[in-house]
Specification:
Number of strands: 12
Distance between the termini: 45 Å
Radius of gyration: 18 Å
Mean pLDDT: 87
Structural class: mainly beta
Number of helices: 1
Helix content: under 10%
Order of helices and strands: HEEEEEEEEEEEE
Shape: globular
């Protein structure tokens, strides 16, 4: 391989030069191949974070899901977590500024040879109109979801939005329309 091709390949798989880790790294063997993948959020300084997945066994062993979550100041820092089943959760939020508070959790699983966005959970509340709140939780693997608004009854629904590679979600991706949240 020529040095020029190698330089292009390295540039395509590398984070931005100003990239800084956000929060703690988490680890889980999502692919169940005996190799524990490491997950980290990387802040490129542009208001979004990338999800870096290391030790994947693909190519150079690193995958980037660019602009997967929003980042702000204190009370607005994204977080990583592990679900009881070993899936990885990426949570972004605004719990500090303005009256509209929200939390978006993306659940990542390993399906069909890909790190897959398997679920989306969106919670919101208004700090002035306390009755304005809700949660929309969607399993993108099954297409089933639930919506609860303002403490009312839980409504089940089906969505046409389907699971996709984690690299196929970014800040501009709309929530499932059944959630009724303006994007």
């Amino acid at each position: 391989m020529t040095s020029r091709i190698l330089a292009v390949l390295l540039a395509l798989t590398a984070p931005p030069a100003a990239a800084q880790p956000v929060g703690s790294m988490v680890a889980s063997d999502l692919s169940r191949d005996g190799r524990v993948e490491r997950f980290a959020l990387i802040d490129g300084g542009d208001g979004a974070v990338d999800l870096r997945i290391e030790n994947t066994g693909f190519g150079n062993g690193v995958i980037y899901a660019e602009d997967i979550a929003w980042i702000g100041g204190i009370g607005q820092r994204p977080e990583l977590g592990i679900a009881p089943n070993g899936s990885v959760r990426v949570t972004s939020m605004n719990d500090a500024i303005g009256r509209s508070r929200w939390e978006l959790t993306l659940t990542i699983a390993y399906r069909d040879g890909s790190y897959t966005l398997a679920g989306v959970t969106y919670r919101w509340r208004d700090t002035i109109e306390l009755a304005d709140n809700g949660v929309c939780d969607v399993n993108l693997l099954t297409g089933k979801g639930v919506l609860q608004r303002n403490g009312g009854p839980i409504r089940s629904f089906r969505t046409a939005m389907s699971a996709r590679p984690a690299t196929g979600w970014n800040l501009d991706t709309p929530l499932p329309p059944e959630c009724g949240i303006p994007n």
